[in-house]
Design goal:
This protein is mainly α. Among the domains are: 30 residues; 54 residues, Multidrug-efflux Transporter Regulator, Chain: A, Domain 2 (Orthogonal Bundle), CATH 1.10.1660. The chain is built from 4 helices and 2 strands. Strands 1-2 form a two-stranded antiparallel ribbon. α2 crosses α3.
């Protein structure tokens, strides 16, 4: 049986759960409006956030200079954040530093707070 169109063999009406109280829906819409506005605001903000952090030309990761530009920082500021452990990164062959979209988004989502502390090895 299709929930949207009912059962064609029986000729029944749709049985959607929210159709039981359809007469009270217009009254409830006014009460729901602030919640709907907040949901729309959050969805729009998330879409804008996703569009802001797309890597150029389909790259999987960017170097420190490009990542700094995407975050609106100077490269030396991003380097200091990395050295302080406030932003995640990867090291590739030759010790070069790369940042993925996830690293940049996590940094922004935390409100520029450092990630959870990791155990670091002490250099001898």
């Amino acid at each position: 049986m299709c929930l949207v169109h009912g059962d064609p063999a029986v000729g029944s009406e749709p049985t959607l759960p929210w159709t039981k109280n359809m007469q009270t829906l217009p009254d409830n819409l006014a009460a729901l409006q602030p919640y709907l506005d907040e949901i729309l605001r959050l969805v729009r903000a998330e879409r804008e956030h996703d569009q802001l952090l797309t890597l150029p030309s389909g790259k999987l990761a960017v170097d420190e200079k490009e990542a700094a530009a995407l975050l609106g920082l100077n490269p030396w500021q991003l380097r200091d954040l990395r050295r302080d452990g406030r932003i995640e990164h990867h090291r590739i062959v030759g010790g070069r530093v790369r940042y993925t979209v996830e690293h940049l988004r996590d940094y922004l989502a935390r409100g520029h707070e450092p990630p959870a502390p990791k155990r670091r090895r002490k250099l001898a």
